[in-house]
Amino acid sequence: MLTQGLDDGAEGIRLRGRRRGDAEVPIRSDAFHIEWHSRAKSLSTSEVQRLNGLAAAAGDDVPKRLIVITTSGISRPAAAFADSAKAFVFFVDRSADKLVALNTRAQETLLPHTKPADRELEPW
């Protein structure tokens, strides 16, 4: 069983979803609208705008924030729009089991890539 997905709990966002056999169970969230983009073509600005509109309409009382998980890339204008729309865009590298942020807002949510022991201490 594969476990991945997004959870909008108080401690942050956690990826959490399940695969039963060959069928994937959709990821659900009260605060985020999660879209899987598995096309060969990179995300365009118009596609991110469309997905952001779906996210806004998906909320009952408050618009949901968009999270896109893609197996391709994103154009620079689309990444800029995603940042202005406060959306998160991630690339899933299945061969390396990595989640890579594709826009600035998504980069801010990921943990640093350096080990704590590799960081120099500030003199104070």
Summarize the structure in words.
It is a single chain. The chain is an alpha/beta fold and 124 residues long. Helix content is 22%, strand content 23%. The strands form two sheets. A four-stranded mixed β-sheet has the order 3-4-5-6. Helix 1 runs parallel beside helix 2.
Largest sheet: 4 strands, mixed
- How far is the first residue's CA from the last residue's CA? 48 Å
Radius of gyration: 16 Å
Question: SSE order, as H and E?
Answer: EEEHEHEEH
**How is the quaternary structure best described?**
single chain
The overall pLDDT, averaged over residues, is: 77
Percentage of residues assigned to helices:
10-25%
User: Tell me, what's the shape?
Assistant: globular
Count of β-strands? 6
Biggest sheet strand order reads 3-4-5-6
Uncertain residue ranges: 1-23
Beta content comes to 15-25%
Give the count of helical stretches. Answer: 3
What is the SS-derived class?
alpha/beta
